[in-house]
Amino acid sequence: MKKSIKAIIQVIIMITALFTLTAWQASSASAADNSLQRVKQRGELIMVTSPDYPPYEFQVNKGGKSRIVGMDIDVAKKVARDLHVKLVIKSMNFDSLLVAIQTGKADMAIGGINPTATRRQSVDFSKIYYSGGQSFLINSSDVNKYKSVKNLKGATIGAQTGTLQYGLAKKKIPNSTVKGMDKSTDLVLALKTHKIDALGIEKPSAEAYVKNDPSLKMISSGYHLNKNEVGAAIAFKKGSNSLVNAVNKSIDQIKQQHLTDQYLASAGKYMKVNTVNTSMWHYWTYFAKGVEFTILISIVATFFGVLIGVVLALMRFSKQKWIRGLAISYTEFIRGTPLMVQVMFVYFGIGVVVNIPALISGMIAVSLNSGAYVAEIIRGGINSVAKGQTEAAESLGLSKSDMMRFVVLPQAFKNIWPALGNEFISLIKESSIVSIIGVTDLIYQLNIVRADTYRGVIPIFVAMVLYFIMTFALTRLLNHYEGKMKHAG
Amino acid sequence: MQDKKILEVKHLSKKFGQTDVLKDIDGTVKSGQVICVIGPSGAGKSTFLRCLNLLEKPTSGEVNFEGTDLTNVDDKHLVNLRERMGMVFQSFNLFPNMTVLENLKLAPVRVKHLSDEEAEKTAMHLLGLVGLKEKAHVYPSSLSGGQQQRVAIARALAMNPEVMLFDEPTSALDPEMVGEVLEVMQKLANEGMTMVVVTHEMGFAKEVADEVWFMADGYILEKGKPEELFDNPQNERAKDFIGKIIQNV
Ligand SMILES: Nc1ncnc2c1ncn2[C@@H]1O[C@H](COP(=O)(O)OP(=O)(O)O)[C@@H](O)[C@H]1O
Ligand SMILES: [Mg+2]
């Protein structure tokens, strides 16, 4: 017992050390500014965005293909063109955008980000390329109740977590309750189902929603704000002066030529295209892609999870105390922390040292997580084999490895198999967490469809049915094989 | 030949944590001898038997098997010596994931490196000996208790051991199946197999045993020829115990 506590402390120390290294790497990178040079050498400008915020950025389904479009994308395209490099777009939660550039996952983050003083402490910003202003969305039925922002006193206000709107609503609307959610689509749905009274949102976004949905109305925020709190700017890792300066030249041109008007107009056109066909059939490729990734991640994670699990389980039966301790600490640590945190740690944390793409990061995190659970399943299965069996094997002079191979494991496997099947099924469901780092699994695709169609509930229902079909089919399959194994004696 | 010592135990003791289960046991088993060990439940009979093939590691003392002290050999040699001692358990412990034939072939093939044909030949011969040739290809779960125990005996014999250890081989059986197992054991004894048998089957002990050892509280309190020990026990505890089992018969 004492030993295992010791081992646990060792693991914690190791992880702390890794963290420190990570943080140090992140900060030391600012020492020499080669940001522009790196982009040019690579020939690619990597941007991150959260494409659920029309008309700034959103996904459209054109000819069965999904594309990210919007004013911000046009701005980024211009920047890339001016730099003579290719634009690469990565998507993830708004919450994660700034972290992504701090950890070097992308060169810049763009997404209607307001360059507030607080944010300036952690990242650098370009000049403001667009000033939209703040507003609120309300239900049409409430137009008489909430004539102006003054009437919102004491109301429940929704805003995207991590956004300026969230902070402003807290600060500027007296006695209000502010509810934060990740996705603006969820917030709109919450508004329409009266879970919130008003939704703090940028004016262009609000206008887009009002245009597409007659049950929504917009009121002006009436906030008196400085331009940093209304304008949108591009965020960069601290110390990227050369890149910021280069980008600012493009922004100067955008402002001189009023290009954003043009960008907004074309974004509006996409939104019209978009509302033509909002049937779920129209989006089947989205769901298919989501299902494909969900299954892919689950299969890969099950495979490596079993591999890691077997190794850990064998370590638990080792003669060396420290090997046992290591396996115990690992298992306890993984089981004692949420999968979501592990996914973010692999992607953002370890990602600073070695840059791992989101999909691979997700697979690694889910595999590492599953391994700990599989180890326990295997250990339980081995322990469930009657002691008499190992004694009989020993008395016959069988070696330890022969005993495991011919006597213990085949019997243990009968108990392990159903539990492993359950683990695989729960992986299908739990792997949905990888959507937070932008892996296009079913949950991620579901949110895209929701943002795209302005329909809040039906896509959720479709995803639910798809998840159920996957798990149900798998359960049936596993039961079939389990039955077969029972017949084998 | 009769005088060759196969097993010689000296000052054997075994502790489980604080409890002394075996305290200073001495005893000699000669080639071809059949020893029956009797005694009340909890006396330490099973522990004693398991110390003989080192399934349980003695706390102190010696277990000499053909002149080698087993308490002093490394794991690798121990495996070699152990394969020369067969053991039969109260609960049979056949491998349920293998057929009867596979149960018998596993150790000869994996440990003795016999060829598949050789192992199969021996196995079928032994199944014939215990009268279960026709059950070679079934799984143990389809056999009765008595049949399973006969297979377990055959499995131990397949390693061609020099001594067989039996730990209450009939006490988990329905009464009508005890006979078939004892019959096999008697046949073995008649063929000259050296055997140490923990049993309460007085009839078997009287008929087959060369010596009976009475165990209680971690000691061997009395040793003697079966007729002496059963009909005229010297030790008070032995007298008491034998009185009780005779009553029960
Ligand atoms: N692995 C063990 N750990 C602790 N105590 C044990 C263990 N095995 C046996 N004992 C104890 O040793 C004593 C003798 O057991 P055993 O040798 O099985 O007696 P018998 O076979 O004569 O009934 C019992 O009190 C039992 O509880
Ligand atoms: Mg016993």
Automatic annotation (TrEMBL), chain A:
It is found in: Cell membrane. The keyword Signal applies. Belongs to the binding-protein-dependent transport system permease family. HisMQ subfamily. This is ABC transporter permease. It comes from Lentilactobacillus rapi. It is a multi-pass membrane protein. GO terms for biological process: amino acid transport. The keyword Transmembrane applies. Keywords: Amino-acid transport, Cell membrane, Membrane, Signal, Transmembrane, Transmembrane helix, Transport. It comes from the Bacteria. Residues 1-31 form the signal peptide.
Automatic annotation (TrEMBL), chain B:
CDD domains: ABC_HisP_GlnQ. One of its GO terms (molecular function) is ATP hydrolysis activity. GO terms for cellular component: plasma membrane. The keyword Membrane applies. It is a peripheral membrane protein. It is found in: Cell membrane. It holds the Pfam family ABC_tran. The keyword Transport applies. Keywords: Amino-acid transport, ATP-binding, Cell membrane, Membrane, Nucleotide-binding, Transport. Residues 7-242 form the ABC transporter domain. Belongs to the ABC transporter superfamily. This is ABC transporter ATP-binding protein. It comes from Lentilactobacillus rapi. The lineage of its organism: Bacteria, Bacillati, Bacillota, Bacilli, Lactobacillales.
